[in-house]
Amino acid sequence: ATVNTAVQDPVFSPDLTRCGYWLKQGDSLVLFVNDKQIAVTKQIGLLRFSADGKHWAARTSEDGWIHDGEPLKDVPKGCELILHPTDGYAYHSGSGYVLRGKKLEPAGEEGWFLPDGRFAYRSGERGKQRAVMDGSPSETFEEVRSLVASRDGKTFGFLGKSKSWFVVRNGDKEKLEVEDADRLSLSGDGRHYVCSARKGGKTVLIVDG
To answer: In angstroms, rounded to a whole number, what is the distance separating the alpha carbons of residues 98 and 107?
Structure first.
């Protein structure tokens, strides 16, 4: 096999049908997606594909964000951009997320799309935080961590602290008898969960309570 050492940082779509990469040419780097030249830049930027592999977005220092070959003039160059699983994107304007041209309220961070296209993020400062799912905020917690969803997209969960730590799934709370909790994961159908925790001064793994 022939190895092209000029190719740098290749990125594949989740379904492995598309590939993007930077190709070093002299003092410049040329961005290619599916072997089509997209942009010329001085440094490697970000490249990502949508979950279905049909759309892509790249950020270069010169042109800012490019989506499916078109510059995104309404999106600030240095902002965070998140691709919808099948169509569109959301971005953080610096004061909150913007989705399909509409600023989302309340403002927040750590946003992401669920497999079914719903958008979730964390809102508020520590001491008064909420998880926001598809525009609907949760109750207020002292702290919110580890926003996750099941693989089938039917269960949305997170860890919330209100004196004690709770696992919250689709609005239902389950108290954890621990001092600290982090890194929540859900089973594919959302019926089971696992998280790391501190209990009795030791690090433990909590499975379904």
So the answer is: 9
Amino acid identity, position 194: V
Do the beta carbons of residue 114 and residue 131 sit within 8 Å? no
How many whole angstroms separate alpha carbon 161 and alpha carbon 176? 10
Measured CA distances, 133 to 91, 123, 199 (Å): 16, 10, 30
DSSP secondary structure letter of residue 52? T
pLDDT of residue 4: 56
Low-confidence residues of the chain: pLDDT under 70: 1-5
SS3 readout for 29-45: EEEEECCEEEEEECCCC
Segment 44-87, tens digit of pLDDT: 888 999 999 999 999 887 778 999 988 998 898 888 999 999 98
Q: Write out the two tokens for 187.
A: 């089973």
C-alpha distance from residue 182 to each of 7, 196, 197, 203, 208 (Å): 38, 5, 6, 11, 14
Q: What is the pLDDT of residue 1?
A: 44
**What is this structure's pTM?**
0.82
- Output the six-digit token pair for 51: 């979950």
Residue 4 has phi, psi (to 5 degrees) of -95, 105
